[in-house]
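Key result, reporting period 2: structure in, sequence out.
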């Protein structure tokens, strides 16, 4: 009985901890302007514009890595190393805002519109 209770509590803690993240800043802090040294220029794909790679990677590590792996290799969630070959930046943005299939949580209240755009544009470039 104690093993079962411990297992349920531990599993619940892992699930709740994995879907959170983002720190104590409330998601309202804008990424620092680094003079454009860490941006990727658009290659004409639907990700559009340039992406602040450093800001996107930080957002990913704080909000996505616990489920999708620190290197986009997957884990509790699917791998994202080639997600841009399956979804456009707009589609990824929609998934981030609304969640997907009950397993992917919605981040619309947790991430700002700018953060979702940065993250989805960065992920769309992963092909």
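The corresponding designed sequence is given below.
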């Amino acid at each position: 009985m104690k093993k079962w209770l411990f297992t349920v509590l531990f599993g619940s803690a892992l699930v709740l901890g994995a879907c959170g993240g983002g720190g104590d800043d409330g998601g309202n802090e804008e990424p620092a302007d680094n003079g454009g040294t860490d941006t990727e220029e658009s290659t004409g794909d639907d990700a559009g514009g340039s992406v602040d790679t450093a800001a996107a990677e930080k957002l990913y590590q704080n909000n996505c890595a616990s489920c999708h792996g620190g290197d986009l290799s997957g884990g509790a969630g699917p791998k994202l190393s080639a997600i841009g070959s399956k979804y456009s930046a707009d589609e990824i943005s929609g998934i981030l805002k609304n969640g997907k299939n009950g397993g992917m949580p919605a981040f619309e209240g947790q991430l700002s519109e700018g953060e979702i755009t940065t993250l989805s544009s960065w992920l769309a470039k992963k092909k």
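The first strand starts at residue 39 and ends at 40. The two ends are 48 Å apart (CA to CA). This case is discussed further under Risks and Mitigation.
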